[in-house]
Amino acid sequence: MPFSLTENLPFLALPLALITLKVTYDVLPFMAFLALVAVAVGCYMFYAGKSSPAAQRTAKKAEATADSLIRELTREEDRAKEEAARKQAAKDRKAAAKQKQEAARKAAQAAKEAAAAKALAQQEAESKPRAAPPQQQQPSSGKSKKQSKKQSKAAPPVEEEDSDDEDDFLLRMADLERARREKGARK
Predict the structure, then answer these.
(1) Are the C-beta atoms of 128 and 166 separated by less than 8 Å?
(2) Residue 180: how many CB atoms within 10 A of its CB?
(3) DSSP-assigned letter for residue 141
(4) What's the rounded Cα separation, in Å, for the pair 106 and 113?
(5) What is the pLDDT along the chain (187 residues), one digit of tens a residue?
(6) Which site among 53, 66, 71, 179 is 20 to 30 Å from 99 CA-CA?
(7) Is residue 8 in a domain?
(8) What is the pLDDT, as a whole number, of residue 150?
(9) What per-residue confidence (pLDDT) applies to 70?
(10) How many helices (H) and strands (E) does the chain have?
């Protein structure tokens, strides 16, 4: 590195100050010498807090290096956060898909149960004896109106009675529906 006066000024300041003091003491009267020393001390105190230009450049380089290091660390942290966010999003998507599949499976199971209940209801309805509705005959032209009136009065329509089988079926259907709703409420 070549010699630079600005970089080496702090090292040269003390010998230069001593030489200047000796020369001024010999040449100037005592009061002028004291005035010059006071000015020199004032200048030193004024500039003592300031660093040299070389030190300023070195400090700027160090600061730039620290800034670039901090930026690099920040970039790495940001990359790590983005990667973690991507992984979390993938987990969330998988969980949502799993919940969707589970909901579809439960809906299919509920549909199967409903179909089974409907089939059971149809089977019970078919196995129950039905009362045939009375057939009303149209009055023929050969019969009188009085006879047709008597026939219609003679056979009143038979109403179906509520049987215990039908009550049991309705109770079972209500239990199945309640169980299905409880299962849906738990999820």
Answers:
(1) yes
(2) 16
(3) T
(4) 10
(5) 565 655 666 667 778 878 888 888 888 888 888 888 888 788 777 776 666 677 788 889 999 999 999 999 999 999 999 999 999 999 999 999 999 999 999 988 888 888 888 888 888 877 775 555 555 555 555 555 556 555 555 555 555 555 677 888 888 888 988 888 888 777 6
(6) 179
(7) yes
(8) 55
(9) 93
(10) 5, 0
φ, ψ at 138 (rounded to 5°): -75, 135
Q: Which residues of 153-170 are buried (b: 16+ CB within 10 A; e: fewer)?
A: eeeeeeeeeeeeeeeebe
User: How many folded domains does the chain comprise?
Assistant: 1
Structure tokens at 29: 């009267």
Rounded to the nearest 5°, which phi and psi values hold at 178?
A: -65, -45
C-alpha distance from residue 58 to each of 7, 69, 70 (Å): 11, 16, 18
Separation of alpha carbons 155 and 55, rounded Å: 124
Would 3 be classed as within a structural domain?
yes
In this structure, is residue 61 part of a structural domain? Answer: no
How far apart CA 130 and CA 125 sit, in angstroms, is 9
pTM of the full structure: 0.34
Considering only CA atoms, which of 52, 22, 47, 15 is closest in space to residue 37? 22
Q: How far apart are CA 20 and CA 26, in angstroms?
A: 10
Could you tell me if residue 1 is inside a domain? yes
Q: Give me the count of residues in the chain.
A: 187
